[in-house]
Amino acid sequence: MTIGQQRTLHMNPWFVFCDGSAVPNPGRIGLGAVFTEPDGTRHTLSQAARENGCNNEAELRALLATLQELKLRGAGRLLIHCDNSVVVEQVGSDTAKPIARLASLFDEARALLNSFDQASLVWIPRHRNSEADALARAALGIAEKRVVKIAKKRR
Question: What was the pLDDT predicted at 96?
Answer without folding.
Answer: 83
